[in-house]
């Protein structure tokens, strides 16, 4: 029965995709899923001018076409009524206004916020940070350590091999801290410490060094980029697998996640073009995952390589993997079965509160609610009194479309239903059987600037083992693992994504990144110090867009930046 | 029980009569001379308007914040006496002054959640005071949980020294012990380090910083830190403030500066004193600015808040604050998490074990808002135009009575927590005891109930909670 349903479901999806692909180019095509009538404002006897339409395909959101030369009336409200007007360093930490106005929802938001900021009982034995907020700094991005002497706190390296398998000893990420009974605070890694002493040290010490890379704009102006080289030493539990691949991740922001989660799958699939049938060089590919409780197949839209389908799946995974905090969804401590020292320490943990796991479902559901209901900041550069945009922002908007950035960073979506948590409705003290939709997230026109699809961003990677001198080596404490990559690739497939693919990250709020955390930088691993550097790193399917930027005049580049900073 | 019912019925009848008379105050003195005679309906002036309620509310804001400032200045004085002359008597006096300072401040918290001065007061580029939501001093004044390990020595549950961020604090992992990075501890340093690196967890200023420096970590009486807590608050010894220059003449045991251990370097105690005075000074400055904004007549926010065209907005903001403090802040963040997870770290005033007062005072502030009353620290009782009066005048006498009862029920349950603590069982121990936990849950339920009624009152008065984004409909793009 289930099987059949699933089959039908996939068949239905295929039909949707085909229809939208077939319907491409015609603004007259009616919508197959919502049945919205075609725009009748245009007299039927004239051929409508579609040259200023951002997309040749028709989205199934029932909205009038997005135009390249004219901003939508409420485009300054990035999330419609779910936008916050706060623009300071708390801009990412605000509840959606409709939530604030309902004291019982506001209370759950605040409780979730509190837990998001707190340390937890039973953290470890292995972890990267002790609280959600410790990585998602003020609900925004993490940061790259300022020197190689500083351990990675709000970024980490994923680990695995070139075939997409996790490392047999270390699992899928390197937790740089461990917990050891009787020792105070987070314990960094010690070479073979876990093997020789049987103690749960951090797994390894990881750091990044940068090489400078020069380039030149068409107008002759030069630029520099920081090319990262990732290094790992002090492996506490033995060597990595022979074919090891690393993937550095700086913590992404969390605001707006509930809106992203509420975009109907069918609306996202409209933009998928896995075989590049329209020959524009861009082939967005949808990734899928299994819903953790029901096992249902669903679109993966969270994680930098699109590996989780829901906020709940994402946060319970982060609790376990990043903090060593287990929950009903992820009850196993982050130890692999080749890490007995970790298992031993896990047995000493204080799990008395919550049926053998570290975090109970009330906390988990409150944190889920918090993440779902964080608002998105309003844009800058728009004067509401006169209803006008700053000229540089408006010019930059035009360039964004002209350079085809919008093909992946799809500006506009419309949210659909926002179902209640699969855990049940949570209040301050309990979880109920009911599952009430979060209507504050529903049916909103939003501007996240992402298609949530996977794209080949180009590049390749190589891992070597080297001594400090750079000389090649094969074993020993001084023999460091070194990963060098060209371009954005990490060489480490994950979920449905290959070693060169990444999910398009949303751009909304990007202009406030440094307002919220002056130390934050850009791209999945924080290598780009500015938004411009991030643009210049684009390759693969985005190479043409990157070239467009290189070919822009200085004034044009400045306008495009003004636009991105207004988001 | 029967009696209460009768009283309630009487009130209802009275109110119904008033409504029938159509006496809404518009008829002037003729109105008061109506059915209920000169005393007005149910002892309430028939002339109470929204403007009156808002005026009273603004005047009481000034009164409560001014009380907080007066108490903070007294605290500042006692702190200075302590660091200049660290005797047991001065130490006790400073701690008493801190507890006293919390009494008025706890009652001001109902003025949060409305883009008022406490949450929004800041200077613009021209140096003028303006309100920008989220830019106000509230966090610097009262944020918690404190990052005590970034301030001074602490121990963890294994009895080892707790450390702040060793990467930031080169020497000792906390501000007081890191002379290299922070040669002098000043107000400016605390302002800069507050929410260090943009991370909210790094709270190092405000009431709770002063509290930590006076009480120290809330260890057990035997100075252990265990999951099973005892009734004692923090045990910081007065010798933590001893320096060569200030050791009291009557020091009989030859003790010198301590810092979690005997014989610490003098500089550590000097720096602790610097931190304490800087934190107290900053607290006074921040409160002074809020008081100025609410000053009747000349305070820029006072005049804005009470302007005729802003009355409905101000009235709506009172309700919004009452609802959000009752439910989200007090029932939610300050009580439910602590009681559900038995977490001392989630307790508000954990070093001094004064959380029972925080709860009671917050709840009292909400009730004050409703009843248009505030009792000054010096005992002067301020009573003005109230929401209760307004509801009755507008004909919502039953709802008014329900609200009155709901606030009283909340205060009754909050008083159980308060009295239990005063009888020796502090809040952090109450949340470990099954029977006392029920009292905490009862208070939470009472707060939830009163919030439902607050929402009803908003509807009854036809108020709209301000939402600047309203008018944007999804199809209107």
Report on this structure.
The complex is a heterodimer of chains A (567) and B (477). The two termini of chain A are 46 Å apart. The model of chain A is unreliable at 1-40 (pLDDT under 50). Chain A is of the alpha+beta class and 567 residues long. Chain A is globular and about 80 Å long. In chain A, strand 8 (288-290) and strand 9 form a beta hairpin. Chain A is built from 15 helices and 18 strands. Chain A has helices spanning 2-22, 97-100, 103-117, 132-135, 193-197, 257-261, 265-269, 311-323, 340-347, 361-372, 391-402, 513-516, 531-537, 543-551, 554-566; strands spanning 83-84, 126-127, 155-161, 177-178, 205-216, 222-233, 244-250, 288-290, 297-299, 376-377, 382-383, 388-389, 413-414, 445-446, 454-456, 460-466, 480-486, 501-503. Residues 1-40 and 468-475 of chain B have low confidence and may be disordered. Chain B is built from 17 helices and four strands. The termini of chain B are far apart. Chain B has 477 residues and is mainly alpha-helical. Chain B has one domain (50-460): M75 peptidase, HXXE motif (A middle domain of Talin 1), CATH 1.20.1420.20. In chain B, helix 14 runs antiparallel to helix 15 (397-422). In chain B, 54% of the residues lie in helices and 3% in strands. The longest helix of chain B has 35 residues, at 50-84. In chain B, strands 1-2 form a two-stranded antiparallel ribbon. A two-stranded antiparallel ribbon of chain B has the order 3-4. Classes of the chains: A alpha+beta (567), B mainly alpha (477). At the A-B interface, helix 2 and helix 3 of A face helix 12 and helix 17 of B.
The top-level CATH class of chain B is: Mainly Alpha
CATH topology of chain B: A middle domain of Talin 1
Number of domains of chain B: 1
* Residue runs with pLDDT of under 50 for 5 or more positions of chain A: 1-40
Largest sheet: number of strands, sense, barrel closure of chain A: 4 strands, antiparallel
Domain Cytochrome c (chain A): 391-567
Organism (chain A): Pseudoalteromonas aurantia 208
Protein name (chain A): Cytochrome c domain-containing protein
Region (Disordered) (chain A): 25-70
């Amino acid at each position: 029965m289930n099987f059949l349903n699933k089959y039908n479901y996939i068949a239905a999806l295929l039909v949707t995709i085909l229809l939208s692909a077939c319907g491409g180019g015609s603004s007259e095509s009616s919508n197959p899923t919502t049945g919205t009538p075609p725009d009748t404002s245009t007299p039927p006897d004239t051929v409508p001018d579609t040259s200023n339409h951002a997309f040749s395909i028709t989205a199934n959101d029932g909205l009038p076409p997005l135009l390249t030369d004219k901003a939508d009336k409420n485009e300054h409200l990035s999330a419609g009524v779910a936008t916050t007007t706060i623009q300071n360093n708390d801009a990412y930490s605000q509840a959606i206004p409709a939530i604030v106005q309902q004291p019982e929802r506001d209370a759950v938001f605040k409780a979730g916020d509190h837990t998001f900021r707190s340390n937890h009982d039973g953290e470890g034995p292995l972890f990267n940070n002790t609280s959600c907020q410790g990585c998602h700094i003020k609900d925004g991005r993490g940061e790259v350590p300022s020197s190689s002497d500083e351990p990675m706190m709000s970024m980490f390296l994923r680990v695995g091999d070139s075939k997409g398998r996790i490392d047999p000893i270390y699992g899928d990420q390197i937790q740089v801290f461990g917990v050891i009974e009787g020792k105070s605070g987070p314990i960094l890694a010690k070479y073979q410490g876990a093997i020789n002493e049987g103690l749960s040290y951090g797994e390894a010490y990881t750091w990044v060094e940068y090489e400078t890379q020069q380039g030149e704009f068409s107008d002759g102006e030069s630029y520099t980029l920081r090319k990262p080289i990732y290094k790992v030493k002090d492996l506490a539990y033995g060597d990595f697998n022979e074919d090891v691949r690393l993937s550095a991740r700086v913590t992404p922001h969390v605001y707006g996640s509930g809106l992203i989660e509420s975009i109907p799958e069918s609306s996202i699939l409209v933009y998928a073009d896995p075989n590049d049938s329209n020959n524009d060089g861009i082939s967005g590919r949808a990734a899928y995952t299994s819903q953790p409780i029901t096992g249902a197949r669903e679109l993966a839209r969270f994680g930098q390589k699109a590996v989780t389908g829901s906020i709940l799946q994402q946060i319970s995974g982060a609790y376990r993997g990043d903090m060593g905090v287990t929950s009903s969804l992820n009850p196993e401590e982050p130890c692999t079965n080749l890490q007995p020292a970790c298992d031993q320490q896990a047995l000493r943990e204080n799990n008395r509160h919550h049926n053998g796991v570290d975090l109970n479902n009330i906390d988990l559901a409150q944190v889920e609610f918090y993440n779902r209901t964080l608002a998105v900041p309003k844009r800058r550069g728009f004067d509401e009194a006169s209803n006008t945009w700053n000229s540089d922002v408006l010019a930059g908007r035009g360039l964004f479309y002209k350079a085809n950035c919008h093909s992946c960073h799809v500006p506009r979506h419309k949210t659909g239903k926002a179902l209640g948590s699969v855990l049940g409705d949570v209040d301050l003290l309990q979880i109920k059987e009911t599952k009430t939709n979060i209507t504050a997230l529903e049916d909103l026109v939003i501007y996240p600037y992402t298609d949530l699809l996977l794209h080949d961003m180009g590049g390749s990677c190589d891992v070597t083992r080297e001594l400090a001198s750079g000389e090649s080596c094969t074993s020993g404490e001084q023999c460091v693992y070194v990963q060098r990559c060209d371009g954005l690739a990490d060489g480490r497939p994950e979920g449905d994504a290959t070693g060169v693919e990444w999910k398009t990250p949303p751009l909304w709020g990007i202009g406030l990144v440094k307002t919220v955390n002056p130390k934050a930088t850009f791209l999945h691993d924080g290598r780009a110090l500015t938004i411009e550097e991030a643009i210049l790193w684009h390759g693969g399917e985005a190479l043409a867009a990157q070239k467009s930027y290189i070919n822009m005049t200085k004034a044009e580049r400045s306008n495009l930046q003004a636009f991105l900073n207004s988001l | 029980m029967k009696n209460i019912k009768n009283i309630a019925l009487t009130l209802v009848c009275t109110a119904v009569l008033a409504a029938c008379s159509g006496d809404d105050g518009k008829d002037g003195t003729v109105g008061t001379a109506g059915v209920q005679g000169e005393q007005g309906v149910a002892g309430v002036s028939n002339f109470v308007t929204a403007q009156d309620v808002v005026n009273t509310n603004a005047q009481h804001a000034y009164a409560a914040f001014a009380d907080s400032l007066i108490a903070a200045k007294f605290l500042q004085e006692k702190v200075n006496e302590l660091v200049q002359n660290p005797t047991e008597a001065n130490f006790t006096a400073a701690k008493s002054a801190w507890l006293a300072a919390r009494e008025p401040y706890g009652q001001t918290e109902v003025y949060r959640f409305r883009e008022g001065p406490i949450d929004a007061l800041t200077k613009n580029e021209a140096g003028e005071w303006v309100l920008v939501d989220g830019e106000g001093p509230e966090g610097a004044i009262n944020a918690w949980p404190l990052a005590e390990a970034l301030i001074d020595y602490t121990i963890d549950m294994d009895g080892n020294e707790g450390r702040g961020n060793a990467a930031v604090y080169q020497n000792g992992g906390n501000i007081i012990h890191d002379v290299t990075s922070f040669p002098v501890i000043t107000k400016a340093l605390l302002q800069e380090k507050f929410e260090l690196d943009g991370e909210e967890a790094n709270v190092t200023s405000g009431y709770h910083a002063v509290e930590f420096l006076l009480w120290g970590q809330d260890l057990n009486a035997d100075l252990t830190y265990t999951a099973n807590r005892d009734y004692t608050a923090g045990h910081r010894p007065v010798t933590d403030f001893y320096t060569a220059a200030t050791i009291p003449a009557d020091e009989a045991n030859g003790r010198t500066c301590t810092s979690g251990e005997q014989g610490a370097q003098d500089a550590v105690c000097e720096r602790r004193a610097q931190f304490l005075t800087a934190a107290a000074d900053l607290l006074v400055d921040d409160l002074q600015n809020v008081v100025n904004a609410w000053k009747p007549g000349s305070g820029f926010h006072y005049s804005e808040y009470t302007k005729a065209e802003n009355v409905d907005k101000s009235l709506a903001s009172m309700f919004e604050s009452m609802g959000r403090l009752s439910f989200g802040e007090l029932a939610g963040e300050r009580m439910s998490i602590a009681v559900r997870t038995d977490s001392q770290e989630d307790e508000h005033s954990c070093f001094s074990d004064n959380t029972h007062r925080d709860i009671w005072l917050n709840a009292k502030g909400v009730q004050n808002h409703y009843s248009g009353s505030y009792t000054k620290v010096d005992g002067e009782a301020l009573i003005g135009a109230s929401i209760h009066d307004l509801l009755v005048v507008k004909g919502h006498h039953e709802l008014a009575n329900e609200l009155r009862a709901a606030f009283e029920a909340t205060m009754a349950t909050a008083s159980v927590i308060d009295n239990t603590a005063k009888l020796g069982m502090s809040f952090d121990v109450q949340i470990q005891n099954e029977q006392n936990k029920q009292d905490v849950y009862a208070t939470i339920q009472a707060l939830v109930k009163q919030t439902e009624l607050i929402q009803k009152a908003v509807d009854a008065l036809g108020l709209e909670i301000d939402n600047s984004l309203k008018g944007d409909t999804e199809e209107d793009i």
